[in-house]
Amino acid sequence: MTASDRDLVVALRNELAAIDPARLCDRASEAAGLEGAIPGREPAVSRLVVRLGRDRAVVEPFDWETAAEHCRMAWLRGRFLARGSLSLSGGRTHLEFVVPLVEAPVLAGRLADIGLPAAWRIRRGKGVVTWKSAEAVGTFLRRIGAAGALLELEARQVSRALRGELNRVLNAESANLQRAVAAAGRQLDAIAVLEADGRLEAQPYVVRTVADARRETPEATLTDLAERLELHRSAVQRALERLERLAELEPAPPGGPDGGQTSGIIRAHA
Fold it and tell me: Which of 129, 166, 192, 229 is the most exposed place for a label (fewest CB within 10 A)?
């Protein structure tokens, strides 16, 4: 992650750790979720553990099956602060809980209970419960109480998505422009060949008109040429394709080895 991404993750975790539940049941639930937090690893989480530990209610056991929704969210908030991590590396959002192996399927089941199913696997003897969906991560963080930092995270995700879409459009436009330039180059070369050996004059009026327009405006698109000449785009395209095809089948560049005599013979016999 970049320094900016790391700062955002720290801000988000600090924001969650600063939440002070008003209900005693929520305080007890969050304290239960904080079980296994590493002392001193994060000052904000350490202060939260001490703060909740002063409340006698925290000694009550937590029962997921009978707990109210707000208690479940408090427990999950504690579990995330104790065992969860968030990564924003490379523009991808990845949230995981690293818990004792026996807890992994239980935690995954509890997340499914609240409509946020997560995958889990074993890694180095631990259970790892994971989300890789930015939408699922955002929904989870919002439900456990993240606000300001989550807005910043979502703003960054939108910005990255917009940049990605803009880059896609620019790349497509650039590719189209390169193809148009290459096609115009081929067409101008064909027109020069046909004009040099006199075959251009023998072409139908529409073909000659399109050829003149292409030479005058090499940068014009087929649509531009069609509008300028008041022709259908397909007629312009067929005329240019005819010019290229004729130049390829009967090339007779000026100053060739026979001085253009071969093309004259071909026309005479034709």
Answer: 166
Burial of 52 (0-12, 13-18, 19+ CB in 10 A): buried
Contact 116, 77 (CB under 8 A): no
Per residue in 90-103, pLDDT (tens digit) is 667 889 999 999 99
Tell me what pLDDT residue 203 has.
92
Q: Residues near 173 by Cβ (< 8 Å), separated by ≥ 6? A: none
User: Range with the lowest mean pLDDT among 34-38, 44-48, 89-93, 259-263?
Assistant: 259-263
The CATH 3.10.28.10 domain(s) of the chain lie at: 3-146
How much is the pLDDT for 149? Answer: 72
Is 0.90 surpassed by the pTM of this model? no
Spatial CA neighbour of 188 closest among 221, 156, 211: 211
Q: Tell me the C-alpha distance between 14 and 170, whole Å.
A: 39
Out of 1.10.3720.10, 3.40.50.300, 3.10.28.10, 3.40.50.360, which CATH number does the structure's domain 3-146 have?
A: 3.10.28.10
Bridge partners (DSSP) of residue 85 are 96
Q: Using CB atoms within 10 Å of the CB of residue 21, give its burial: 0 to 12 exposed, 13 to 18 middle, 19+ buried.
A: buried
Structure tokens at 187: 């067409």
